[in-house]
Amino acid sequence: MLQLKNIVKDYHTGDEVVQALKGISVNFRRNEFVSILGQSGCGKTTLLNIVGGLDQYTSGDLIINGKSTKDFKSRDWDSYRNNSVGFVFQSYNLIPHQSVLSNVELALTLSGVSKAERRKRAKEVLEKVGLGNQIHKKPNQMSGGQMQRVAIARALINDPDILLADEPTGALDTETSVQIMELLKEIAKDKLVIMVTHNPELAQQYSTRIVKLLDGNIIDDSNPFSDEDEAKEDDGSYAPRKTSMSMFTAFSLSLNNLMTKKGRTFLTAFAGSIGIIGIALILSLSSGFQKYINDVQEETLATYPVQITKKAMDYSELLSKMVGNNEEDSNHNHAGEDKVYSGDIMGDMLVSMVSDVKENDLETFKKYIEDDANGFTKYTSDITYTYDTPLYVFNENSANGGVAQVNPSTTMTDMGFGGMAEAQESTADFMSAFSYGSSSMDMWTQMLDNDTLLKQQYDVLAGHWPENKNEVVLVVDKNNEISDFTLYTLGLRDSKELKDMVSTILAGGEAPELEQMVFTYDDLLDLKFKVVLPGDLYKKNADGTYTDMSSDADFLKSAVAGGLEVKVSAVIRASDKAYATTMQPGYIGYTSELANYIVSENEKTDVLKAQMDNPDTDVFTGMPFSDGKELTADDVDMDSVMQQLMDSGQVTEDMQAQMASMTKEQLFEMLKGYGFFQESTSTYEDNMSKLGYAELAKPASINLYCAEFADKDEITKLIDKYNEDYPDKEITYTDYIGIMLSSVTKIINAITYVLIAFVAISLIVSSIMIGIITYISVLERTKEIGILRSIGASKKDISRVFNAETFIIGLFSGLIGIGVTVLINIPISKVIESYINVAGVSALPWKGGVILVIISVILTLIGGLIPSRLAAKKDPVIALRSE
């Protein structure tokens, strides 16, 4: 069954070579009890280790059932130890943190035996050695004899062909030694038992064969087994099963080991978690502040949309010219001189203000937007359109005592500053283009159509959100106050107080204290206003022309009485969680439905119809619009003119006689001198604008509201794509949000890079520390490594055990780190809130927590790779000798 042929074993220590075995040749029967006797250092244990596959011979051959082992690889020796050999050691070599049952069934786990089968066979073999009632004890709870029985049971569990015992009774008393020897003798009836001993009496009493060694040579064999007999017994059936330790077994071994050192395991995991805690706190603060920034950005975007106006210009270029960015121009370089020169920027700036104003075709762009295939809807939370049709709102029962215009606001005029408005008219085109983001004195503003966004920004204090075009909302501030400016504008305070206040202050007096007004919610919900169409403020005259009657009190009262009544349906206030809002306190918010109603209904008014029906005639003067050319006699039908004069009865007979003698040109000049043939100084477009004409298909501005900055960037790309598709209708606009926040982005990026650097340092420190801790564990578990290798565990299995340990430590470290971070975040958030009044800034996102735990596990695995490789490479013979 087992043959050793000329086995030589050399040990190298430096330059010196020690020969432990010097050509040993011996054959063993399939079942016999062989005792190997000899003095210390004669090679007994070395021979036993070579037979057991723990150590490899230098030369010669070990033959198992006729199969040579010369070409055996490490994995073949692992299978041989697991399937064919069982070891019984003098020092028992049990794994202390495993129970008796687990120690015994460990070899079966390497063979891939199921859990139920392992338990069954382990209990049977423990019953066989008399320990059936001790299966749940730990080795340190048992006597020496009991532990040796456990070792024998472990050796027998895989039903090996060979049982190797190295001084099995060396640490036992006489009575226990006899029990162990009787047990080995019984086993030898079916198996080959090879025992190394110093006790010749025990060998003589129990062995069937005694082999004596001296200085690495066999000097005596009491019952030799010839090669011929070996050949007859050899059946050539050696085919061991491959061994493989499951991950569950590796985890079980590692977890049990760690649980025997709970305090140290906790401290190790906590030390490993320090880096994770640092990273988690950084992540908590960065993600918390990022969430805060995102919330601010999102609501800021709701306040500052991407706005495209009918008239636009590139303000980045204008601003560049305003600050005189001509430093790179060599013609302006006077740095080497001792004089200071004036720089010419006003000319360029004025040219930009006038010539760089572009007309955007918003009709085409609106159609492009409304085509969902282009993706604008996907990246916007709301799209609103505004029109040039003014919103005329009146209060029939104002504090002034009668009808008061509420919108457009007349408050500045009431204060005596009305001239400001006229001054602006001369630069209408430029100011209309420059008006982005600037709020006028008007307190009425169009609301978003996105109800969800509105409800996120505002809380309803009383009433309900508008459901119809004739319902509006009133915004109060966080203190439930409305400014007196709003009250004057809405006609809730007498504007005479303003005039008196201005007079007093201009005279050098102090501003008088006004009595504070108090309104209930019901008072505010009872407020009603009248919306009058721009065209309804004009009266048709007998000659067919129209006159603006907005300054006529009686006419205005009648027009207001026939206007559309709107009422306040809700009193709202900015939510505590809102960082930016679309409507400021004191504003009245109306729906897009009302805006569209005014545009469409105004087109139906008489004055607008008359102007559209007579595009060449000014409906306010009855005169034709000037085409820019000087009127001549050839442009006038003089016969028709003369006939009209005759029919009017204004021309006497003498005048008729005089006119009859005049040429056509002379007659034209005479009538022109009397005021005939005058042209209107206005244009058709001027009149249509004055009357508030607009088409729903042609908005004055388009506001694109985005929820995130990423969406804004996508909108910018879509606009650029539109400009590529329609190069002749290119849209000009300025990205104000991008300009405002470009520096903020740089700061955020810089902070992010610093945090990443801290994180990287923490990760490196954690990895090094885990590697050191794992290496210490390898040193402590060296004997366990030897035990596992002796029962057939491969190098990969040993690596798996320590990788499992680092996995557990990493998982535990990660969980501790996340738990501690969650607890620390509570006071950190409170402290930050007390300073900046922002709640929940330090909050670890759950995804971040999961990722950090995974990172902790990965880092510990990486940190433990080198120690686990070192463990796998340990010589099992040397490992078994360590204590």
TrEMBL record:
<keyword id="KW-1003">Cell membrane</keyword>
<dbReference type="GO" id="GO:0005886">
    <property type="term" value="C:plasma membrane"/>
</dbReference>
<dbReference type="GO" id="GO:0098796">
    <property type="term" value="C:membrane protein complex"/>
</dbReference>
<dbReference type="Pfam" id="PF00005">
    <property type="entry name" value="ABC_tran"/>
</dbReference>
<feature type="transmembrane region" description="Helical">
    <location>
        <begin position="266"/>
        <end position="285"/>
    </location>
</feature>
<keyword id="KW-0812">Transmembrane</keyword>
<protein>
    <submittedName>
        <fullName>ATP-binding cassette domain-containing protein</fullName>
    </submittedName>
</protein>
<keyword id="KW-1133">Transmembrane helix</keyword>
<dbReference type="InterPro" id="IPR003439">
    <property type="entry name" value="ABC_transporter-like_ATP-bd"/>
</dbReference>
<keyword id="KW-0472">Membrane</keyword>
<keyword id="KW-0067">ATP-binding</keyword>
<dbReference type="InterPro" id="IPR027417">
    <property type="entry name" value="P-loop_NTPase"/>
</dbReference>
<keyword id="KW-0813">Transport</keyword>
<dbReference type="InterPro" id="IPR017871">
    <property type="entry name" value="ABC_transporter-like_CS"/>
</dbReference>
<dbReference type="GO" id="GO:0005524">
    <property type="term" value="F:ATP binding"/>
</dbReference>
<dbReference type="InterPro" id="IPR003593">
    <property type="entry name" value="AAA+_ATPase"/>
</dbReference>
<feature type="transmembrane region" description="Helical">
    <location>
        <begin position="846"/>
        <end position="866"/>
    </location>
</feature>
<feature type="transmembrane region" description="Helical">
    <location>
        <begin position="750"/>
        <end position="779"/>
    </location>
</feature>
<feature type="transmembrane region" description="Helical">
    <location>
        <begin position="800"/>
        <end position="826"/>
    </location>
</feature>
<dbReference type="GO" id="GO:0016887">
    <property type="term" value="F:ATP hydrolysis activity"/>
</dbReference>
<dbReference type="InterPro" id="IPR017911">
    <property type="entry name" value="MacB-like_ATP-bd"/>
</dbReference>
<keyword id="KW-0547">Nucleotide-binding</keyword>
<dbReference type="GO" id="GO:0022857">
    <property type="term" value="F:transmembrane transporter activity"/>
</dbReference>
<feature type="domain" description="ABC transporter">
    <location>
        <begin position="2"/>
        <end position="240"/>
    </location>
</feature>
<dbReference type="InterPro" id="IPR003838">
    <property type="entry name" value="ABC3_permease_C"/>
</dbReference>
<dbReference type="Pfam" id="PF02687">
    <property type="entry name" value="FtsX"/>
</dbReference>
<comment type="similarity">
    <text>Belongs to the ABC transporter superfamily. Macrolide exporter (TC 3.A.1.122) family.</text>
</comment>
